[in-house]
Amino acid sequence: MQEHKGAQRIAEIVGREMYARDNAVRALGIELEQIGPGHARMGLTLGSAHVNSHGIAHGGVIYTLADAAFGYACNAYNFTTVAAQCEIAYMAPGRLGERLTAVGEERFSKGRSGIYDITVTNQKGEVIVMFRGHSRRIEGHNVPDIELQLNKT
Amino acid sequence: MQEHKGAQRIAEIVGREMYARDNAVRALGIELEQIGPGHARMGLTLGSAHVNSHGIAHGGVIYTLADAAFGYACNAYNFTTVAAQCEIAYMAPGRLGERLTAVGEERFSKGRSGIYDITVTNQKGEVIVMFRGHSRRIEGHNVPDIELQLNKT
Amino acid sequence: MQEHKGAQRIAEIVGREMYARDNAVRALGIELEQIGPGHARMGLTLGSAHVNSHGIAHGGVIYTLADAAFGYACNAYNFTTVAAQCEIAYMAPGRLGERLTAVGEERFSKGRSGIYDITVTNQKGEVIVMFRGHSRRIEGHNVPDIELQLNKT
Amino acid sequence: MQEHKGAQRIAEIVGREMYARDNAVRALGIELEQIGPGHARMGLTLGSAHVNSHGIAHGGVIYTLADAAFGYACNAYNFTTVAAQCEIAYMAPGRLGERLTAVGEERFSKGRSGIYDITVTNQKGEVIVMFRGHSRRIEGHNVPDIELQLNKT
User: Fold this and answer.
1) Quick check: helix, strand or coil at residue D41?
2) Strand, helix or coil for residue D94
C-alpha cells in the first residue's frame, strides 16, 4: 500500500513536470487529466484547428491525443521511455465540438519493453480510436531529482 | 500520356483545395511539396512547438506529417478517402531545426481499399519513421466541381 | 440470462462444427479448449514439427495459434467473419515441450467490424505473444441450420 | 561486385542450411525458391491441409508463408535474426490449388533493427497478403562455420 502510494506520487510528479515541458501536446490543447503507474488519461475538445479537409478531426490530432496518453502512462515510473512502434485503428470520426478522452493502460511489461493499449472515446462513450503502443525504456529519468521532491512534501 | 496528364492535373487541383481547408496540417506548419496520382510529398521544419518533454520531436507530430503524406496521396484521385488503420515505427528521433520530408506512395489498390507506404527522412537522408496506412474510399469527391476547374485552364 | 445461455450454446455448436472442418488448425495439433460469445481459448503443445531453424517455435506456428483463438472468438456469434488485418508482437520464444495457451477476447464491435486481443502464454504464465486482430463480418453463417441443432437438445 | 558475389554465396549457404533444419516450414510444404542478401522468395501450393472452416486458406498458413520469406531474407547475412513484430493485411482469399509466392525485401536496416516488406501473390499475380516485419538481430550466426564452406568450393 505504502509502496503503491509512493508509485502514485512519483507518477504525479513526473506527469506534472513532463507536461510543463511538453510543447507539442500543450500547443494542441491536450490536457493531462490523470496519471498513475502505467496509466494515464488525457482530454481534448475538438476545435477548428483540429479538423482536416473533410471537416472531421485530423487523424494526426487523434493519434497525438492517444500517443500522449501512451507516453504519460509508460513514463509514469520515471524511467525515460520512448515509443518504438504504434498501431492505430480509426473506428468513428471525431467531430467539431466533441470532447475526446484517451485512456492508456499498460498491458505488458518485461525488462525494457512494454505494450500499452489506448482507447479514445467521445463524450457519448463512442469509441473513436483503438491504439496499441510498444514502448522501449532508454537511459535516464524523466525527473532526475525526484527524491528531493518526494521528501519535500 | 494524355490520361496521365489529366490524372496529374486532378491531383494538383485536389491537393491545392484540400490543403486550403486542412487546418490541422497548416497549423502545425506542414507544407505540401508535391502531389500526383497515389503519391504525395510533405515537408516540416521542426520548431520548438513540435518537441515533447524529452526535447525531441513529439511522436504525434511526426505521425501527423506521415499521415498527411498518406492522406494527400490516397485522396489525389479525387475520391474521398479516409484512413482505416495505420502503423508507425520510429527509427530515429527528429531534432529541433531539422527539415523532415515525408514521401507517400501507393503500394496496393483494389476496389475501395488501398495500402500506402510513407517514409519520413531528415535533411541528411536518415530514416526517421516508416509508416504504413490502410485507406478506405467512402462516398463523395474532394473537389465536387473538378470538371469546371479542369476546363478552366 | 436466458439470452446469454442461448449465445453460449450457439458459440459451442459453432466451435464444434468449425473445428471439425478446420484442417489447418487440426493438422498443427491446435486444440479448441473453450468458446463463448466473442471469446475463445486454444491450446498447443510444442513438438518437433513446430520448431524453426533456430530451434524455437516458428513464428508462424504461434501466429496460427493466436489467429485460431481470434477466428473462433469472432465467429462464435455464427456470422461468417474473416480477418482483415492482424498485428503480432513476439515477447518471448516458445520452446519444445511447452504448453501454449491462446486466449482471445473481443475488445470492440460495431456493425461488421470488430477488434480482438489475443494473448499467448506458456504453462508458467509467461507472455509469449501479444496479438491484435481486426475482423470483418461477411455474408453467411458458419452453421446455416443452427436453429435445428438448438432445438434438438 | 566480388563483395556482392560473396554476400550472395553466403545467403545461399545460409538458406540451404536453415531450410534443412526448418521443420515447421517444410511440414507445411513451403519451398525456398530464391535467396539473396536481404531478399527471399518462397512458394506454396495450397492443398486440403491448408484450408480453414470457411474452405479458404487459413490465415495462419498464409502468414507462415510470408513470415518464412521474411525470416530467410533477414537471416541471409548469416547473423541470427528474429521477428520482433509483424503486421499482415489480408487483401484476397487464397483458394485450394492455387500457387502462392511470397517475395520478401529489406526496406530498412540500421544496427540490429530491420524492416522487411513481404507481398504474397497467387499464380495470376493477384495480391493475397501485404506483410511488414520488424526484425531484431540477436547473438550468433546461422551457419557458424560458413568460412569453411565458402572456401570449400
Assistant:
1) strand
2) coil
Min Cα distance A109 → chain C (Å) is 10
Residue C119 belongs to domain spanning: 2-144
- For residue D2, report the phi and psi dihedrals to the nearest 5 degrees: -55, -45
Of residues C91, C115, C134, nearest to A110 (C-beta): C91
Quote the mean pLDDT of chain C. Answer: 94
Q: What residues contact C149, with CB distance under 8 A and at least 6 apart?
A: C13, C143
pLDDT at A5: 78
Considering the domain boundaries, does residue C152 fall inside one? no
Beta strands in C3-98 (DSSP E): 31-36, 39-45, 79-90
Neighboring chain D residues of B134 at a CB cutoff of 8 Å:
89
Could you tell me if residue B153 is inside a domain? no
Is A134's Cβ below 8 Å from some Cβ in D?
yes
User: What average pLDDT does range A60-74 have in this prediction?
Assistant: 98
Say if CB A70 and CB A86 are below 8 A apart: yes
Residue D78 is given by DSSP the state: S
User: What percentage of chain C carries pLDDT values higher than 90?
Assistant: 88
The residue of D82, D85, D115 whose CB has the most chain A CBs within 10 angstroms, and thus the best one to mutate to test that interface, is D85
Asked if residue B108 lies in contact with residue B77, where contact means CB atoms within 8 angstroms, the answer is: no
pLDDT at D110: 95
Query: Rounded to 5 degrees, what are φ and ψ at D122?
Result: -95, -175
Tell me the backbone φ, ψ of residue C95, rounded to 5 degrees.
-115, 155
Phi-psi region of C29 (alpha: psi -120 to 50; beta: other; left: phi over 0): left
- C-alpha distance across the termini of chain B, in Å: 18
| Angle at the Cα of C31 from the Cα atoms of C26 and C34, rounded to 5 degrees | 135
Of B89, B92, B110, the CB nearest to D115: B89
CA–CA separation, C21 vs C77, rounded Å? Answer: 17
| Minimum CA–CA partner of D85 in chain A | A85
Q: Which residues of C touch A92 (CB under 8 A)?
A: 110
- Relative to beta strand A79-90, strand A31-36 is unpaired
Q: How many structural domains are present in chain B?
A: 1
Task: Find the closest chain B residue to A85 by CA distance.
Answer: B89
The total of other beta-carbon atoms located within 10 Å of residue A147's CB is 10
The C-alpha R_g of chain D, in whole angstroms, comes to 16
Q: What's the pLDDT tens digit per position in C15-68?
A: 999 999 999 999 999 999 999 999 999 999 999 999 887 789 999 999 999 999
CATH (domain of D52)? 3.10.129.10
Q: Which residues contact A144 (CB under 8 A, 6 or more apart)?
A: none
Beta-carbon neighbour count of residue C127 at 10 Å? 18
pTM score: 0.95
Distance CA D110, CA B130 (A): 13
Res B37 pLDDT > 50: yes
Phi then psi for C114, rounded to 5 degrees?
-145, 160
D1 pLDDT tier (thresholds 50, 70, 90): very low
Model confidence pLDDT, tens digit, residues A1-50: 456 679 999 999 999 999 999 999 999 999 999 999 999 999 999 999 99
What the block records as the C-alpha cell of D2 is 566480388
C-alpha–C-alpha distance, residues B83 and C53, integer Å: 38
The overall average pLDDT reported for chain B is: 94
Q: CA-to-CA distance for A94 and D142, rounded, in angstroms?
A: 49
